[in-house]
Design brief:
Length: about 300
């Protein structure tokens, strides 16, 4: 398909979603939100993480932004945390932290940190610290990649990763085995050609953010596996996915495009029932509800 034709199709598929602001982040510690994931234990609870260089903490908050506490990750330094995913295996809820950022493309080995989702005690508070369930080292089959978008598909026992600079999709096997020392190899399964390039106007408006405006910053998979949502600074891309369908095939298809309000550095998204919740970086960032997402 010619680029001009692809651009026309993208414009025709763009929709202005029902977007609401539910509140603002109240936690003074959650200031560079790089990933969020819906809790699999508690309704209407969201977990969030900060970008690299911050303390290795999970931050809990409600949909209205109220602070629900923080939990430290033991033996899990925050080198460059970029996304967060929640999933359930054999009735146990987990959180996966993607330590996968690599702005200059020189990081040979990246890490996925997996913990059992923290529980509240009898006092209603979370424990101060949680142990790692496993720490998975991995490398890309074709060299270092900067990645800010990671999701878990339990149905296929796969972890999906989308590189930021060139929107290439990789996959890893989902494993909870402890003590993995030899790096796993992330295999390329698709290239996403449907993301537009920045326009001259976007580059003039913001030379830095304009360059990155259409690069993937987060992904999440709907609970029923029917959609995968991909976040950029300007849009949400919804790719349909059928049961048993290859993820590479789904992500090579033309997505539905949802426009976002004017937010700065939106780098996190998660499905909450039939809606998407998105949070940008920054202190007191707004919590944005998008949807409902219909079939």
């Amino acid at each position: 398909m010619k680029p001009a034709m692809l651009f026309i199709l993208l414009i025709s598929a763009t929709a202005f979603a029902d977007v609401k602001t539910l509140g603002n982040l109240a936690s003074p510690m959650l200031t560079e939100t790089s990933g969020i994931a819906v809790s699999k234990r508690y309704p209407q609870l969201i977990w969030g993480i900060n970008d690299g260089g911050n303390p290795a903490l999970l931050h809990a908050f409600s949909l209205d932004g109220s602070d629900q506490g923080s939990v430290a990750i033991s033996r899990g330094p925050n080198f460059d945390w970029e996304d967060l995913a929640s999933f359930v295996v054999d009735g146990t809820p987990y959180l996966l932290i993607a330590d996968t950022g690599d702005n200059i493309g020189t990081r040979r080995t990246s890490w996925l940190l997996i913990v059992i989702e923290p529980q509240r005690g009898e006092d209603g508070l979370f424990a101060r610290e949680v142990e790692l369930a496993t720490r998975l080292p991995f490398q890309y089959e074709d060299g270092p990649r900067d990645c800010e978008a990671v999701a878990v598909d339990v149905a296929s026992d796969r972890i999906l990763l989308v590189s930021k600079r060139d929107a290439v999709v990789y996959e890893l096997p989902l494993t909870l085995v402890k003590g993995v020392r030899r790096p796993l190899i992330a295999k390329k399964i698709a290239s996403i050609a449907s993301l537009p390039r920045p326009t001259v106007g976007e580059l003039l408006e913001s030379p830095l953010l304009g360059l990155w405006r259409h690069q993937p910053t987060a992904i999440d998979i709907a609970d029923d596996g029917s959609f995968i949502a991909m976040m950029t600074y300007q849009h949400v891309y919804l790719f349909k996915h059928a049961v048993g369908q290859d993820w590479g095939e789904s992500l090579r298809a033309l997505p539905q495009v949802l426009s976002l309000p004017a937010l700065s550095q939106t780098e996190s998204v998660t499905f909450v029932e039939d809606r998407l919740i998105a949070v940008a970086e920054g202190r007191s960032a707004p919590i944005i509800s998008i949807g409902p997402i219909s079939h």
